[in-house]
Amino acid sequence: MQYVNNPRQTRLIDPFENILSPLAYRQLKIGWQHLFRETVLELMPVEALKKNFDPTFGQPTKELYSMCGLAFIMEFMDWTIPEAANAYMFRTDIQYALNLDPENQSMSERTVERYKKLVVEDDLAAQIMNDITMALVEKLDLSVEVQRLDSTHVFSDMAQFGRTRMMGVAVKRFFTQLKRHDEAAFESLPESLRTRYQPSAHLLFGDVKKDAESRRLLRQQVAEDMHDLIERFSADAKHNARSTFTLLVRVFNEQCEIVADKIEIREHPGGDVVQNTSDQGATRDGKKGPGYQVQLAETCDAANDVQLIVAAIPQTAAESDANAVEPVLDVLTENDAMPKVLFTDTLYGSDENVQKCESKGVEMVGPTPGQKSGDAYAINSDDFVIAEDSHEVECCPRGETPLETIRDDARETTLVVMSATSCDTCPQRAECPVKCRPDGNYEYRFTDKQRRLDSRRREEATDVFRERYRKRSGIEATNSMLKRVTGMGRLRIRGSPGVFHSILLKVAGWNLFQAARALVMRKARRFTLAAG
């Protein structure tokens, strides 16, 4: 049976005022707990959670607003399940935040685990994150017109194995399941094969020498063992559908290949491969290692008291930042938080992404990736005077009129032909990218994309751009503080559903802390003005 207590229903007498000292009660009223109780608690997705329980039959559930709230709080407070259960029963400030009576509260660890599992399975974290963030933006009347975008790496609760050990653990996990369900098939395998994978995962291959040749031979041996097992059991309907066997096949295909009937180890399997058999959602970033990442769009308007993260998209670590702009813009559009200016770093700043932003009315400000076109020349396509509508080149940087302009609209290419008279005597000839033609005249071919990139690079070389772009660096501090305050640097869980759930709620919790800080700042400012 569903038990729901509407948090909007106010009490005539607040029981916490009688059990706390005046100082403690005042601190509670200006803390994040009061903001949570006043603004956030009613946003918990109780209607979605209610669907897991019969409306009339059975024992009453725990109060659903408080359970949704506890599932949220335990993430950004970085609590274990026992810590969350104890906080529900013993911590007065948490009881206040959850709109509970400060007495006779009971909570088992199993109940916390059950409700958290329901929130994860119903995929409610994104809804919680978006609803809370936009409510806080509205409450604080923050500007979202200027934002900055960056990603940060997140480690899940998994061991970091090398390739050989990870492949060996995949074999070991298959053996464990095989022995449990078909001991006869397990015993039929060669004893040397079974013995090789008998030690625990962390002690696996511990007796092998550490020199390069020994490691190479061991990896080759493991690859051949995997191939033999796949060949042996791939046609066995009793085992070929088991999760450990499909994982074994996946790891083999990612790490190995068969060339001329010979098993070879892939030299560079890439980042989008299994990193640990216990967390198959984790991939590898070439610089930061295995795990996950999250794309964060944060406000950075100087008029705001504090800055909030208005979009968060969890991803696996192998995802490229270059592909993140469009999904982030979609989330911002859905939340009605589209900026006018978006600061990014180099990885996001491709011409394609700039064009996508412009199509949505957003100015992307960030360094241009890649090598400069025509690095050997001081003059580039941006220096030519071109009519925007017709793409006709009106004159070169020295003011000389070209002989002709040939435009290819299909390929978005422009060819400008300059006379030999103009170019031969030009004092900037060595700095100009024009090339001599067989007829003695000169030509220069460039694309619309090249011209846009040249224009951006010219702008990036100015002091005005550097001063403007300084705002982007502030998100690095946000990334650091977010990990330190909420524990997002290394999560307590593994597996993409749980990891994504945790990341989103930790980001929402960070926004809650920021909003509470802003309210305290405003109250102090009002007090100062009144005193003055």
Describe the 3D structure.
- The protein contains 21 helices and 14 strands.
- It is of the alpha+beta class and 532 residues long.
- The strands form 4 sheets. Strands 1, 4, 5, 6, 7 and 8 form a 6-stranded mixed β-sheet that branches.
- The mean pLDDT is 92.
What key attributes describe this structure?
flat, 4-stranded antiparallel beta sheet, 13% strand, alpha+beta, 46% helix, 14 strands, 532 residues
Rounded mean pLDDT is 92
Largest sheet: 6 strands, mixed
What is the percent of helical residues? 40-55%
Could you tell me the radius of gyration in angstroms? 31 Å
- Globally, the shape reads flat
The count of strands amounts to 14
Low-confidence stretches: none
Beta-strand share of residues: 5-15%
- The helix/strand class is alpha+beta
First CA to last CA: what distance? 57 Å
Number of helices: 21
Quick summary:
The chain is of the alpha+beta class. It has helices spanning 15-19, 22-30, 32-40, 46-50, 64-76, 81-90, 92-97, 109-121, 125-140, 163-181, 183-187, 191-196, 212-233, 243-255, 325-334, 351-359, 420-424, 448-460, 463-469, 474-486, 496-531; strands spanning 146-154, 256-259, 262-265, 283-285, 289-299, 309-316, 341-343, 363-365, 385-386, 393-395, 404-408, 413-418, 435-436, 442-447. The chain contains 21 helices and 14 strands.
